[in-house]
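Supplementary material to the annual report.
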Amino acid sequence: MNFIDYYKILGLDKSASQSDIKKAYRKLARKHHPDVNPNDKEAEKKFKEINEANEVLSDPEKRKKYDKYGKDWQHAEEFEKARSSQGSSQSRGRRTSSQNYGEHDFSDFFESMFGGSGNFSGRGQTRFRGQDLNAELKLHLRDVFKTHKQTLTVNGKNIRITVPAGIENGQTIKITGHGGPGHQGGPNGDLYITFGIINDTPFKRDGNDLYTSVNLDLYTALLGGEIMVNTFDGQVKLNVKPETQNGTKIKLKGKGFPVYKKNDVYGNLYITYNLVTPTNLTQKEKDLFKKLAELRK
Amino acid sequence: MEKEYILITDFCLSHNIETHFVMELYEFGLVDLVVKEDVRYLPIQQLPKAEKIIRLYSDLDINLEGIAVITQLLNKIEKMQDEITHLKNRLDLYE
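Predicted assembly:
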């Protein structure tokens, strides 16, 4: 557990007045408030630090204790014992006021110095409805080709969710009522799950459409023929037209990715032909190609 | 009724705010209210928005005009972030 420099967090020196502290807190709180920085974990962390610094420095009692012990904060317990023997009704009164807020709002340093429950004034936490929770779920592209059920553990509870086919990378879905519990009879918050889709397939995805390339040998490209190609869910037979050019793109309708929340509706698969010319030609092949070339002169 | 709407008085009580503040939010177009038999309710879907406004108001001392601007800008940012995600996904096609 490390010492936390609350003055540094608020960008102040030790001689800062209450007005300086208030001003510095307001300025930083506006910048890092979770409501103006949605889904920004760094801002949320910073806001908690700012709140904690303000909690200590704006309270003369806490500030005095913090200033007195500073980096020797481990000795604060002795101070606390001496102080409690004298009695401090003000301190006891303040501590009871924050039952609704989790201990995680304070650092270990704070809790060690001032006890588990402080007087967090509820900044950034005013709620009747429970807190919304955010979670990230990494899935492979193949996992989201079909609608499936998945069990998640959020805050120690197992939640079984349906992951709809066709979900996009970066898409967020809301699971109503699975956030934090409501206060004073308020409804629970919601759980927001953001999906990170890992694509380790030979297919590239653009929305519901898939793209891939297929090698085509010279003879099939010139004369046409049948080839087997891989789609996302199996092989299909393709008729290649004679005299197909390198880079030709064909569309396989309905062979793309499932459309989100639309049963049995799929995007398209676009296949680009890569013409592969033969190598390591035999003398006979070279002679025949020369003959072919002469025919074109 | 109970699950879809919250009595304004209950909401104000839990947040320790006056009813007229919620009416002000309504007049500013920041939240929607529903009136049933002369009783005003806050639709439950409006709760996250209403509570965010109260936090901005009480934590940061931002007035309602400021909150209206912030809300509008946050909506714009959200749309832009969706667009960035979409464009990033499209960019994968060319990598």
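Chain A touches chain B at residues 26, 29-30, 33, 35-36, 38, 123-129, 132, 168-171, 183-187, 190, 199, 204-207, 211 (CB under 8 Å).
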